[in-house]
Amino acid sequence: MPEGNAYLVLDVVQVEGEASSLKFSKEIKEGELRTNVKLNDKPVDYLNRFVNDRNEAPERLRIPIPSGLLKPGMNKLRFDQLPMAAKPEELDDIGILTIALEFSAAGGAEK
Q: Band of the pLDDT at 111, cuts 50, 70, 90?
């Protein structure tokens, strides 16, 4: 494994964001309409927290991977979507265009 911090890098579109000015901000802050990210069955974060606009065009998200979750060899990445509480059939209709891993050098400057 490379030294330093690991990041999950995603190019996404149409992800509902958590920023206060956005349509579903309240619901997302309450745990609805979220897209949770898990690595090797452990929580990493949720995508919506990293989106600050309407995400109508592809946007690159760089999500820190907690230390110890990424292991040498095969890893399992999973996206779990949570519905609206009042409408359990309604999920966020997102697009994930690119998935990559990125590492910063140990002790080096962050991008």
A: very low
